[in-house]
Amino acid sequence: FRYTRNLVDNGNGKFNLMILCWGEGHGSSIHDHTDSHCFMKILQGNLKETLFEWPEKKGNGEMAKKSERVLRENQCAYINDSIGLHRVENISHTETAVSLHLYSPPFDTCNTFDQRTGHKHKVTMTFYSQYGERTVC
Amino acid sequence: LPAGLSQWFPALEVLDVSGTGLAEMGAELLSLPCLHTLLAKNNRLGGPGSLPKGLGQAPLARSLRVLNLSGNRFADVPPMLLRLRGLRSLSLGGNRLHSIPPDIQELRSLEFLYLGGNFITSIPPELAKLPSLKYLVLCDNKIQSIPPQLAQLHSLRSLSLHNNLLTYLPREILNLVHLEELSLRGNPLVVRFVRDLTYNPPSLQELAGRTVKTRNVPYAPSDLPETLVRYLSLASNCPNPKCGGVYFDSCVRQIKFVDFCGKYRLPLMHYLCSPECSSPFSSASQSSTSQSESDSEDEASVAAHRMQKVLLG
User: Fold this and answer.
1) From the centroid of its chain, how far is CA A21?
2) Residue B5 and residue A88: Cα distance in Å, rounded?
3) Taking a C-beta distance cutoff of 8 angstroms, is the pair B43, B72 a contact?
4) Taking the CA of residue B152 as centre, how many other CA atoms within 13 Å lie in the half-sphere pointing to its CB?
5) Cα(B117)–Cα(B40) distance, rounded to whole angstroms?
6) Residues of A with CB below 8 A from B116's CB?
7) Which of A106, B137, B147, B158 is deepest in the core (most CB within 10 A)?
8) What share of chain A in percent tops pLDDT 90?
């Protein structure tokens, strides 16, 4: 019922390569990338990426949008914490989307941000499947 | 659709005619007894003739499980669609719907309902009568409020409400114990305390009516004018489960925030019979029933804790 993260390769601990599957209307929270490099390539469909500025220390206002764009099939994007935060969404109500993500070094926790207040919240990320096998929580 | 479809492919189970420019689907569909999945997204359906006449009587009405009509031009849900009793999954995403018909409750087997990307302004309470509904998508619409009855969707696991016009939620939303996902972003949810919204003080007739009902004052139709007998029969129970009071026309609406450890505050609308009615989730203790107040607060914090895990950013 949400987008799924499916691990494909863990690069001997140096990186995580995964495939994300987005249903119609599925979107991520605004999140950071825990000091890692993040590459994304669209394999199918389209994904909208909205960039946000980091909120002020004790953020207490609506977060500031920097820019937004729609990434088409085969397009690539890159982000890291010094660039900012982003939200990725499949805004289509008729098509699913699939994206390939490379994170180096790998990370399994990050912060999510409330767009209305800038408050952050640490979360642990999980995989829906790993190497083709369903991961049971 | 080509005539003779059912003669060439009588065993057809899945038919995908998406992206073909189809404006009508006619009687060719009616004689496909094995058809359980019909995908017709991104077409020009929406006018008369989009669905065949006699759909309600065809075997299709019982056999069809999945219907995807997203990306078409439907301005309303065709009544014939509501005859598909066996339907488990319906998508009308990205159409031109302005409302959801109350008769949607006829789709008794529905588990998945996608209505994102329309122009829907309100949700009929009858939607809550779908006993098997697990996944409800209402994102990217123009919805201003959620009816509290929606909390009766006991099977609901996922509720998508992002990008609408909600300023608050009914407090009953905390009753959806099986909910695993809730998306609320992109709604103008109030963040600051909002003074009591409209409260019209009760009329003398209402005050008398409340006393008659709560004190069980006996009366017979011969004792009162017919209009008053009818009036008394319209008493509603106070929405606060801990209050035994009733109200007729006058009820307080009040927004209280449920706080998730200071990280996220959700504005929930409480309906009370009067401003003095002690409500669950109220932080100010007013009456001497301190035990029941703290019980309410425990319920509230358990519900809030559960909701915190469920809320998607």
Assistant:
1) 11
2) 42
3) yes
4) 12
5) 17
6) 24-25, 93
7) B137
8) 82
pLDDT given at position B246: 80
Chain A neighbors of B114, CB-CB under 8 A: 24-25, 93
CA B75/CA B92 separation, integer angstroms = 10
Return the number of other C-beta atoms located less than 10 Å from residue A121's C-beta: 18
Contact assessment for residue B157 and residue B179, using Cβ atoms and an 8 Å cutoff: yes
What pLDDT is attached to residue B289? 42
Whether ipTM > 0.90 holds is yes
Residue type, B269: M
Q: Which of B110, B73, B123 is nearest to B94 (CA)?
A: B73
The whole-angstrom distance between A105's CA and the closest CA on chain B is: 24
Separation between Cα atoms, residue B142 and residue B117, nearest integer Å: 9
Q: What is the CATH number of the domain that holds B115?
A: 3.80.10.10
Pick the CATH number of A4-134 from 3.30.420.40, 3.30.420.10, 3.40.50.720, 2.60.120.10: 2.60.120.10
pLDDT along chain B (313 residues), means of 10: 88 95 91 93 94 87 95 95 95 98 96 98 95 96 93 93 92 85 87 56 86 90 90 80 74 68 66 65 38 54 68 70
Q: Which domain holds residue B205?
A: 200-251
- Please check whether residue B163 touches A, CB under 8 A: no
Residue reference for tokens 């779908």:
B130
As a whole number of angstroms, the distance between CA A126 and CA A61 comes to 30
Are B102 and B245 in the same domain?
no
Are both B175 and B241 inside the same structural domain? Answer: no
Q: Is A113 on the interface with B (CB under 8 A)?
A: yes
Q: Are strands B112-114 and B89-91 parallel, antiparallel or unpaired?
A: parallel
Q: Is residue B88 part of a domain?
A: yes
Tell me: do B34 and B51 sit in the same domain. yes
The answer to the question of residue B305 being in a domain is no
> d(Cα A62, Cα A58) in Å, to the nearest integer?
12
Q: Is B110 exposed, middle or buried (0-12, 13-18, 19+ CB in 10 A)?
A: buried
pLDDT in tens, A55-72: 987 767 889 999 999 999
Size of interface A-B (CB pairs under 8 A): 64
Facing residues of B67 across strands?
B38, B90
- Asked whether residue B260 is domain-assigned, the answer is no
* Distance (Å, whole) CA A1 – CA B137: 10
CB-based contact B191 A30, cutoff 8 Å: no
Instruction: Give the pLDDT score at B281.
Output: 40
User: Is the Cβ–Cβ distance between B123 and B105 less than 8 Å?
Assistant: no
Nearest to B313 among A91, A94, A113 (CB): A113
